[in-house]
Amino acid sequence: MITNELLKKRFKVVLIVEGILALVILYLFMFYQPNYTNIKVNSSEAFEKSIVTGNTTRIYGKNFYETAIAISQAAYPATFEDNKPNAVILVNGEEKNDGILSARLIDHPINGPILYAEKESIPKVTLDEIKRLNPKGIFADRKNQVILVGNIGDKVESQLNNEGIKFRHLIGNDPFELGRKIDDYLATLKGNHKDSVIIAPIEMSDYALSETAWSANTGDGFLFITKNSLPKSTEEALKSRHGKAYMYLLGNDKFISKDTKKELLKYGHLQKIPGGKDVYAQAVGFANYNDIGKNFGWWINKRFRRFGWGITEAGHNFIFVNPKDWHSAVASSTLTHKGNHGPILLVEKDSIPDSVKEYLEVVKPIDTYGQGQLYNHGWIIGTEDMISTKVQADLDNFLSYEEED
């Protein structure tokens, strides 16, 4: 028999339970802080050690696979949905031109790092990193989580299938066709081909290493030509701009004939990025180059064209790579997409080229005051076998501001 006294007892019990639940919920909202740094990372061994100075940070691993993983970990913590990539870009570590072409895929909507595989297998450390990242999938491309680029075999595809990882493979018979395939793929995702296109002769592809940072930051086009011809695939890609391409040429006249330049002019406006005497000067030329003009969009959405970093003052981020370490150069372009945007500058193992020194003197911060002080920062990419600690120390000095006595 239910009595008033029994109901009062039950009401008190319910009230106490509700009070306890309310206190627990209040605690969770006000005091609980999830420890994201305690998440286990299978590929953490990629960080062999870190050398940090006041103005530089070195990122590297035991080999180029792990260096790319270290860059990926710096750019994508993958602790929750907002800092995960949409996909991973997987490149054959023996194909430099494929890597250079793939850099523009880093930009949105793919929004992911470049990692390296062998032609017929994915190294365990790379596969572990893909699993750690757990890509969300490209919404506009059937939620694919990996983009395979270029010369990668069927066994890699089977490996991804066995792991339940969705992928797309962009294939070309040569770098010219692969460039067009990437160009068309991104045009499909974004609704149109980018009017701005960077052009480099394949005979001097190292001149394009510094370009990868810009393509990763903006998604602008990149295509290869040869010294004496405009390959059919490159020509088809330029035709898709309907005579309104803005082409920016890398390199020097030693590897680009006048006839090839005339062929390019049929498809739009052609400008040469300065500093083509060597790869170091070319990177500097790209860092301070800026082209502004009208273009882009219909009358209801007209906006100015702006191409190039145009960095000629202090307060910026720079990436330093040895051009002999092309894997690190290409992978480091991820850092211009995620984090502080900035150009790639090229250095030697034991010295800083004069063209780079002169440029760093121009952008060197001056001593102002606490709240208004401008700072530069440099990412040093690769091992001491590629960039020595002495060069890192010298770069730290160039990037710092000189205090007044």
Please provide a brief summary of the model:
Pfam families: CW_binding_2. With 405 residues, the chain is α/β, with parallel strands linked by helices.
Describe this structure in words.
This protein is of the alpha/beta class. The protein folds into three domains: 47-63 and 313-405, no CATH class; 77-171, no CATH class; 195-311, Rossmann fold. The protein is 36% helix and 16% strand. The chain has 14 helices and 14 strands. The strands form four sheets. It has a four-stranded parallel sheet with strand order 1-14-12-13. It has a four-stranded parallel sheet with strand order 3-2-4-5, sandwiched between helices. The protein has a four-stranded parallel sheet with strand order 7-6-8-9. α9 (258-264) links the parallel β8 (245-249) and β9. The radius of gyration is 25 Å and the shape is globular. The model is unreliable at 36-48 (pLDDT under 50). This is Cell wall-binding repeat-containing protein.
Count of all domains: 3
Indicate the CATH topology of the largest domain: Rossmann fold
Write down the overall geometry.
Answer: globular
> How many E strands?
14
Kindly name the structural category. alpha/beta
> Which architecture of the largest domain would the CATH scheme give at its second level?
3-Layer(aba) Sandwich
**SSE pattern, N- to C-terminal:** HEHEHEHEHEHEHEHEHEHEEEHHEHEH
Provide the CATH top-level class of the largest domain: Alpha Beta
Can you give the helix content as a percent range?
A: 25-40%
Largest sheet: 4 strands, parallel
- Strand % is 15-25%
Summed over residues and divided by their number, the pLDDT gives a mean of: 89
